[in-house]
Every structure is written in structure tokens, then in C-alpha cells.
Write a structure and sequence with these properties.
About 45% of the residues lie in helices and about 20% in strands. By secondary structure, the protein is an alpha+beta fold. A three-stranded antiparallel β-sheet has the order 2-1-3. A hairpin with a 7-residue loop joins strand 1 and strand 2. Helix 6 packs across helix 7. The longest helix is centred in the C-terminal third of the chain and has 13 residues.
Length: about 170
């Protein structure tokens, strides 16, 4: 369940809380003649509510938050943060994000010998450059090899925080 607030630009008018688009329309009609509101994301099971509201028409934004997987919403917001224009249709935006973002996460969540970021780098090296990964492991050179830097210079992605976890993220354009 989501909670939003419509804050009027007119400081003499009062705003209202709403839960979905139908609730918004009902309250909007009750608060006429106020015509313009800033829509604020107050609460809900998404970390990306305000970003979605700021980038898509209200009805479609609420529908996206209610129906899409959190990971897909996170991917869309990641693409938006990169400055890629996705248009006004959240469905097209989700499809673009699903088709064009590669995410590789930490495959060893219980390992404690090094940082999660290093483990993600090792996962990416094994995924994209298995011969190099095997050679480094066979010769015990992996501790001397800067895997993160190699990945940054040899791939089109980066190792970074995505959805609160270290991941390799690549956007294919």
C-alpha cells in the first residue's frame, strides 16, 4: 500500500493524502479550484517512489509502482540517473531496462575474507574472462591482480551499489 501527498503550489490551499489514482481524482475534484500540485511519495514498499513520480505521468507512475517488480523499477531509475530519456510510458521504460541492463551480483554472500565489492569483481572476471580468472587462480596471482580496475577498463559496465548491494551493472545501448 502506498501513500502520496498532493501539495498545492497555492500556499493558501490545503493538500491531501491519497492511496491510488482514483483516490487522487476524487480528492482533486473536491479541492477545486486548485489546479496544480506537487506530488510527493510519502510511504510504500518501493525505494524509488519519488523518482518514478517525477519522471512519469501520475496515473502510469502509480500503476508502475503497484504492478512492477522492485528490481525492474530500480533498473528504470538507474537508466534515468544516467540521463537516458525513456519517454512517458513506464511499460516501455521497464521493457528497455529489462532488455538493456546486465546485473551480476555477489555469488558468495557468506564469504568474509574480502569486501563484497571484491567478490563481485571476481564474479564478473569469471563470467566474462574465464581464461584470465583460471590462470590467476592456478598461479595464485589473484591477490596481486587489480580485478576491479581491469573490469572498469575492459568492459562497458561498472562495479557499484545497485539496489543497496554491490553489483556489476552494464547498460547496453
Amino acid at each position: 500500500m502506498f501513500t502520496f501527498h498532493a501539495t498545492p503550489y497555492d500556499i493558501t490551499a490545503s493538500g491531501f493524502y491519497f492511496k491510488d489514482y482514483d483516490d487522487y481524482k476524487k480528492n482533486y475534484d473536491l479541492h477545486l479550484p486548485v489546479e496544480e500540485y506537487e506530488i510527493q511519495f510519502i510511504d510504500g514498499p518501493s525505494d524509488y517512489g519519488q523518482k518514478v513520480l517525477d519522471n512519469f505521468p501520475l496515473e502510469q507512475a502509480i500503476e508502475m509502482l503497484e504492478t512492477q517488480e522492485e528490481l525492474d523499477i530500480a533498473k528504470v531509475c538507474y537508466v534515468l540517473d544516467m540521463g537516458i530519456q525513456l519517454g512517458n510510458d513506464p511499460t516501455d521504460a521497464v521493457r528497455y531496462a529489462q532488455d538493456n541492463i546486465i546485473i551480476i551480483g555477489n555469488r558468495w554472500p557468506n564469504a568474509t575474507m574480502c569486501s563484497e565489492k571484491e567478490l563481485v569483481a571476481d564474479s564478473v572476471l569469471e563470467e566474462f574472462f574465464p581464461d584470465i580468472a583460471n590462470m590467476l587462480e592456478e598461479r595464485n596471482l589473484d591477490s596481486y591482480f587489480d580485478t576491479e580496475r581491469f573490469i572498469e577498463h575492459s568492459t562497458d559496465g561498472n562495479i557499484e551499489k545497485f539496489n543497496d548491494e554491490w553489483c556489476y551493472v552494464e547498460v547496453m545501448r
